[in-house]
Amino acid sequence: MLENISKELSYVRVTTLRKGDPVLVESHPSNWRCVGVGNSAAVFQLKNAPHLSIKVYADKYASIAQDEAAIYQQLGDSPFFPHFYGYGENYICIEYRPGCNINDCLVQGIYIPEQVIYDVDEAIAYARSRNLNPTDIHSKNILVHEGRGFLIDVSDYGQTEECKRWDNLKQAYYNYYIKLYRPGFTVPSWVLEIIRKWYKANEAKDNLEDFAETIVRLFFK
Predict the structure, then answer these.
(1) Residue 70: CA atoms inside 13 Å, Cβ hemisphere, count?
(2) Beta-sheet strand order (sheet of 49-57)
(3) Contact yes or no for 99/116 (Cβ under 8 A)
(4) Cα 171 from chain centre
(5) Which of 114, 116, 186 shows the shortest CA–CA distance to 150?
(6) Looking at 21, 136, 156, 167, which residue is catalytic?
(7) 59 is a catalytic site residue
(8) Bridge partner list, 87
């Protein structure tokens, strides 16, 4: 299977635009379906092998593929992470996990149950038990499926610095989401983009609570 994937990769072109912005998928095989993009890679599901997904890195980030493969191998099998199948020069092959990421849940009005918070906490504890440091856990790499939470994108788990993104996201869930949610509750994608860019520029500061209160006053009251 990996040999066939390597051949089809010649039809995949993933490029970067600006640092910090999602990559651009310029081309891919007709039997591949793009299911997500990040700041360094795009993820595809194979139509003729729907249990597989291929994460293809843009050229300037190709070396991350080997690093992420090593992290998956260190994680081993866990119900909270995709199964790892193999990797190549600029890609990894992992299990396709169905679901909707938290960002899209907010945009589409899909309820995020508290069980998802418990599952992410358990996944983080498991990764730490494997001597990894789960970092960069944000709304686009947490999947929600049938009321449960799963993590994808482990590429930064080998870093050593402390990351508070999950702590801040969990705090926002309890302080705002469960209080604001009602059937039909949605958050416009452009509001989430404002929050993303502001957070990225200010996550090291101590005024996140003030910013969250401002967002709620402006858009949700």
Answers:
(1) 11
(2) 32-37, 41-46, 49-57, 91-95, 84-87
(3) no
(4) 18
(5) 116
(6) 136
(7) no
(8) 92
Radius of gyration of the chain (CA): 18
Residue 22 in tokens = 């999602």
Q: Which residues contact 149 (CB under 8 A, 6 or more apart)?
A: 80, 115, 116, 117, 118, 119, 120, 123, 142, 143
- Greatest Cα pair distance, the chain, in angstroms, is 54
Residue type, 61: Y
Reported in sequence order, the residue ranges of the chain that DSSP labels E, i.e. its strands, are 13-15, 24-27, 32-37, 41-46, 49-57, 84-87, 91-95, 100-101, 142-145, 148-151
Of 153, 30, 13, 21, nearest to 92 by C-alpha is: 153
According to DSSP, the residues that pair with 142 across neighbouring strands are: 151
Structure tokens at 199: 């957070």
Give the CA distances from residue 39 to residues 22, 60, 182, 210, in Å, rounded to whole numbers and listed in that order. Answer: 4, 11, 32, 27
Which tens digits make up the pLDDT trace of 86-134? 999 999 999 999 999 999 999 999 999 999 999 999 999 999 999 999 9
Helix (H, G, I), strand (E, B) or coil at 219: helix
**Could you read off the pLDDT of 14-59 as tens digits, one per residue?**
998 877 788 999 999 999 999 999 889 999 999 888 999 999 999 8
